[in-house]
Amino acid sequence: MTGARDNQPNSRDPHEVSRIGVVLVAAGRGERLGAGKPKAFVELGGRTLVEHCISTVTSLPAGGHLVIVVPEQLADETLREVAGATAPGGNWEISVTPGGRERHESVKFGVDALPEYVDVALVHDAARPLTPAALFERVAAEVRRTGNAVIPALPVVDTLKRVGDDSIVHETVDRAPLVAVQTPQGFPRELLAAAHDRLGTGSLGGGASRPTDDAEVVQRAGGTVRTVPGEPLAHKLTSPGDLTLLEALLAATNRDAR
Questions:
Q1: What is the pTM of this model?
Q2: Which of 95, 147, 166, 231 is the most exposed place for a label (fewest CB within 10 A)?
Q3: Which helix (H) or strand (E) holds 186?
Q4: What angle do CA 173, 176, 177 make, to 5 degrees?
């Protein structure tokens, strides 16, 4: 396990089979939640969202490197949470790095902090604390199989309407080709790094709009993005109502485990 600013070269044999790298994005302010603290450090079932995610990632048997991207002032607290959420002797290396002003900067900093041996990078939002380990494995396996970007997706089940600024419905949107996208999103590491480098130089196109996820960053750079089935447990915490739902999902999951 490395510290918040420990960037020592990795001594791993370059001929060894590489492992995955996970960038856990936990630098958001969470203003819509109104918790008075960054969203990733809100508690769910007595543990912060970051702790839930650390436990899941480090349970993956293949091992790898986890980079946790947090507000700089919370780096030391995060290292303490790492110690509490991981078992001794595990096969995961963990580092903590400060985030940027916007999400895409935080992801870039996290990808840059991955050691050279990582060839598959997964980007996960700490705001999805109950995402099961199986989804991480599913995404990583499809990245390796195809060499493309891979995102988990769920079918859209609600009827969708296009509404104008005047609150008048203009049309019903065909939901058949639409999906709701989750994380972790997986990429060949070099593809993701190059796409974020291009975004930083302003050469991706797309006008003034910023991509809303990493799959869009890669797609704007010319990459192919595929989907795999998502998981209802990978629900995102955005509003206080989401916290209530996640608490219910956690309680149900714990009952099933017993």
A1: 0.89
A2: 166
A3: strand 185-188
A4: 95
